């Protein structure tokens, strides 16, 4: 079977219809039938039988389909890689990104990238770290950006920079805070913390241990809920600096924790799908945006 015959066989088997396969391949129905008949003649056995007006795959077809499906996937990967390598000035970048980066770093990067590559489009999905692997293996995204490093030889990390964990609070809640927030300062306030399902939640656990019983801890599963609670004065939210940047209001203050708690940010992609020049250029810009954010000390508006 040559590549065209494999493509036709795969389409007919998947769609269970010659006419449907013809639509998938954008060719005529007689053309599909002719190729399928020629394939069966060369193989010496039937791939499909007509049973009560329906096309039914034979046992031999079932056996062959596994290999054909694998080849079809590999051809698709080859074609996508070729498209990725083609251009550094036009195309579409498909991004999966954590919600904490979706309203600050990534929008800024896209806006700035448009000035140098105006013909580049973007397809953006907000996803959580526990669905990173699924999004990548399903080819829903070219890469994902987050602080959860997958230990998988099939997934390649690209370091982007570091971020800090800190406290987000109304300015009038802790008027004496200027540079950092330490454990003693947190003991006197209700704390809004992230649930264990959030990747960075465990980083601040030592600071929240042995809290006075009169002080409550509000646990949330979304960083933006934590930010909204802090904005309303419900307590001090322990979140990352990038979420804080996306929640900018004059009344909110973000300070890094003391001792400093940092986390790494990476772009993750399938090892068998190398990043294009276009995508690498975009990630270079993301890296530039992250550097000053991680290095700016002191009290800042959210």
UniProtKB/TrEMBL annotation:
Which species expresses this protein natively?
Sphingomonas arantia
Alphabetical list of Pfam families matching this protein: HTH_1 (PF00126), LysR_substrate (PF03466)
Q: Which PANTHER family does the protein's record reference?
A: TRANSCRIPTIONAL ACTIVATOR PROTEIN LYSR
Phylogenetic lineage: Bacteria, Pseudomonadati, Pseudomonadota, Alphaproteobacteria, Sphingomonadales
State the InterPro entries in the record. Answer: LysR_HTH_N, LysR_subst-bd, WH-like_DNA-bd_sf, WH_DNA-bd_sf
Gene3D superfamilies (alphabetical) = 3.40.190.290, Winged helix-like DNA-binding domain superfamily/Winged helix DNA-binding domain
Per the record, the domain of life is Bacteria
PROSITE patterns per record: HTH_LYSR
Q: Where is the HTH lysR-type domain?
A: 1-58
Q: Which UniProt keywords apply?
A: DNA-binding, Transcription, Transcription regulation
Q: Is the keyword Transcription regulation assigned to this protein?
A: yes
Its name, as the record gives it, is LysR family transcriptional regulator
Q: Which family does it belong to?
A: Belongs to the LysR transcriptional regulatory family.
Signal peptide extent: none
């Amino acid at each position: 079977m040559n590549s065209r015959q494999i493509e036709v066989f795969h389409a007919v088997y998947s769609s269970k219809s010659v006419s449907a396969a013809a639509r998938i391949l954008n060719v005529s129905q007689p053309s599909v039938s002719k190729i399928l008949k020629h394939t069966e003649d060369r193989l010496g056995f039937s791939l499909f039988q007509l049973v009560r007006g329906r096309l039914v795959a034979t046992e031999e077809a079932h056996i062959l389909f596994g290999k054909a499906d694998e080849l079809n996937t590999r051809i698709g990967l080859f074609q996508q890689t070729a498209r990725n390598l083609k251009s550094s000035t036009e195309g579409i970048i498909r991004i999966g990104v954590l919600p904490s980066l979706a309203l600050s770093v990534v929008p800024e990067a896209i806006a700035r990238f448009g000035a140098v590559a105006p013909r580049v489009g973007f397809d953006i999905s907000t996803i959580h770290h526990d669905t990173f692997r699924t999004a990548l293996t399903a080819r829903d995204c070219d890469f994902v950006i987050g602080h959860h490093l997958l230990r998988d030889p099939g997934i390649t990390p690209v370091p982007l920079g570091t971020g800090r964990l800190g406290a987000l609070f109304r300015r009038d809640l802790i008027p004496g805070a200027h540079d950092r927030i330490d454990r003693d300062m947190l003991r006197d306030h209700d704390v809004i913390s992230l649930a264990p399902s959030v990747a960075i939640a465990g980083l601040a656990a030592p600071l929240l241990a042995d809290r006075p019983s009169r002080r409550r801890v509000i646990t949330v599963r979304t960083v933006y809920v934590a930010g909204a609670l802090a904005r309303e004065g419900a307590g001090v939210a322990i979140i990352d600096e990038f979420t804080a940047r996306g929640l900018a209001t004059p009344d909110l203050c973000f300070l890094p924790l003391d001792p400093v708690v940092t986390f790494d940010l990476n772009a993750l992609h399938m090892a068998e799908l190398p990043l294009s020049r276009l995508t690498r250029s975009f990630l270079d810009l993301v890296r530039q945006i992250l550097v000053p954010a991680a290095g700016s000390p002191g009290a800042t508006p959210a």
